[in-house]
Amino acid sequence: MAAKADEILGLAKSKAPADRERLLLAIVDLCDAGEGAQAVMKAPPIQALLNSIFMSLVVEAERDIRARLAEKLAGADWAPVALVNVLALDDIEIARPIIAGSPVLKDHDLVRLLVEATIEHQIEVARRPNLGPPVVAAILQQQEPAVLTALAGNFTAQVNTHDMSRLVTASERIVALRAPLSHHPALTDDLARQLYIWVGQSMRQALVARFRLDGAALDAALGAAVREAHGGLASPSGELVVRREGEREEMEEQLLAKLNAAGQLRPGYLLRALQDGKLSLFVGGLATLGRFDPTQVRRALNSDRPELLALACASVDIDRSVFPTILELVRKLNGGRPGGGDEAARRAGGAFGPLGADIAGAAFRQAVTPR
User: Fold this and answer.
1) How many other C-beta atoms are found inside a 10 Å radius of the C-beta of residue 29?
2) What global pTM score does this model have?
3) Residue 145 burial (CB count, 10 A)
4) Are 191 and 168 in contact (CB under 8 A)?
5) Mean pLDDT for back-to-back runs of 10 residues, the chain (371 residues)
6) What are the extents of the domains in the chain?
7) Residue 234 forms beta bridges with which residues?
8) Which of 44, 152, 308, 340 has the smallest number of CB atoms closer than 10 Å to its CB?
């Protein structure tokens, strides 16, 4: 054991690239050498030395060496804290075992990953076994759909009733949450009734069986709510006949009003609506955010002047770099309008000038108002 320690110390003092790689491989080998060898790594001289040199070693090491190191150190309680945190921020294939299992990572380290790392890293954090309340709270605060879904499927995470309520509420807009939540051990009777509204028939049957819910009563209440919301009528057979004309517009108006009242209607939502192929939802959302009449927005979309749409976007603080994507999606969904071709699209970027959002909004209203 003393000879192994001397070998590690000697390699650590060497600046030769080959010796640095041999040092990393020696550390990897120690991970499989049993408790006695690992005790060497806990010795203060070794720990102090590792903490002083590991950064340059890991940065300079080849990718496959870093991957082996991460895999071996994932379960090591003696691994230097700074080394583990660096590996946790590495490429996701390298970071995954560290994030999933390293006992060195604490709640504050995981919260930092949620703030600084990629979505793939955040998903791995949400999947980590026995996730603590501070990390759960940070995930719920960020409201990233893919990360929330990973959390919903992590049945070992320390999720309380309030956390479950937030997840169930989010399942109204995030379809992927519904299946894992319907099987979650922390789901309560009351939350199951709320979730029942959003899930499909097979999951409804599972909820009824698990919580002994009155499915018939819930279906009747749901049908009544739909009739009230959408102006539906009951046929003589008792089936719901939904009024088609204007139904989608009414539903979207209600959704936008709800999002706006909750402070959740933001510019990013408009882009997502277009990506989902919902042009009318984009029109309504842009009108709501900019306090425009929807007919003004439609007039801009059907014109040959993409700068009108650019003014409207600038007035609601949509970034200039995002506008080309918005224009492309709008044209795709709106039969090529607004027209004007590539040159007009290029000129439209001038709407995102030094002028403020209020001035852009006023210019838009003046431009689209019939004379």
Assistant:
1) 12
2) 0.55
3) 14
4) yes
5) 62 70 69 56 64 60 80 83 86 94 95 92 96 96 93 96 94 88 92 81 81 71 50 40 50 80 83 88 93 93 93 91 93 92 87 80 88 66
6) 1-105, 128-229, 247-368
7) 240
8) 44
